[in-house]
Write a structure and sequence with these properties.
The model has no long low-confidence stretch (mean pLDDT 96). Helix content is 41%, strand content 18%. It has helices at 29-41, 78-92, 104-120, 126-136, 178-186, 193-200, 207-227, 238-244, and strands at residues 4-9, 13-18, 21-26, 49-53, 56-60, 65-66, 146-148, 157-160, 163-167, 174-176. The protein has one domain (62-244): Aminoglycoside phosphotransferase (APH), C-terminal lobe (Aminoglycoside 3'-phosphotransferase, Chain: A, domain 2).
């Protein structure tokens, strides 16, 4: 029996690693349905599905290492970040998945609710929340939907030297705003935004929208992180992202 490693665990999901196999356990099988179908549709490398016996999904480990971790300098080269941008572009150019994405009014309502909680709970100062709420408004505008990963954080992108070996955790995949993926990918790693844009191959990326999604993502994440045992106040994490907008 190989050693068992708990990769992540909270009240909704757990991921275990046994040798070269990842076992994902999710209380909501609709998320797993999305993950499996999205990986089958994606035009970029994804983990191999070994088997599925609800509530468990078994995936083969990807070669390479994650592009980085939130709160830590990325060990990856500039070329690897360029490759990540190119992978995002390939995904966004693919046909849309058939299920609906989140509506603009839903995203705005979620932002309003989380900002109210942040202030009333005392989690963050009112002026910090207010300022970032204004920054986030730039992202809440109509967009042409594309096939987005929906949670394209750097821990979900695997590289081997300068090559993308795969992208994991597709349960949030849906039609959505391309710039949301680029923002999540570069959250707290603003120094690599130019590399990502270069790989993406667009000369008209609206940086105000990227900044808006950085603020939106950080504001709406805090309550969930706290309630599930994570610390958004660690150096380089969500609180620091919000302070950087001041």
């Amino acid at each position: 029996m190989e050693d068992l490693e708990v990769v992540v665990a909270h009240s909704e999901r757990a991921t275990l690693r046994v040798g070269d196999v990842f076992l994902k356990i999710d209380v909501d099988q609709t998320r797993t349905d999305v993950e499996v179908e999205a990986m089958a549709m994606a035009p970029i490398p994804t983990p191999q599905v070994l088997w599925r016996r609800p509530p468990v999904l078994a995936l083969a480990a990807l070669p390479g290492t994650a592009l980085g971790r939130l709160g830590e300098p990325s060990p990856a080269s500039s070329a690897a970040w360029v490759a990540a941008g190119a992978a995002a572009r390939a995904l966004h150019d693919a046909p849309l998945p058939p299920w609906p994405g989140r509506r603009l009014d839903e995203l705005a309502a979620r932002l309003d609710g989380e900002c109210e909680w942040l202030v009333t709970s005392g989690a963050l100062p009112r002026d910090l929340v207010t300022r970032n709420r204004r920054v986030a408004e730039a992202a809440l505008r109509p967009w042409k939907p594309v096939f987005i990963h929906g949670d394209l954080q750097i821990t979900h992108v695997f590289v081997d030297e300068d090559r993308i070996t795969g992208v994991i955790d597709w349960s949030e995949a849906a039609p959505g705003d391309a710039l949301y993926d680029l923002a999540v990918l570069t959250l707290a790693h603003e120094e690599h935004l130019d590399d990502v844009i270069a790989g993406y191959g667009a000369d008209d990326v609206d940086l105000d929208v990227i900044h808006g999604w950085w603020s939106w993502r950080s504001l709406v994440a805090v309550r969930w992180l706290v309630e599930h045992g994570f610390d958004p106040s660690l150096p380089g994490c969500e609180f620091d992202v919000l302070r950087s907008r001041m």
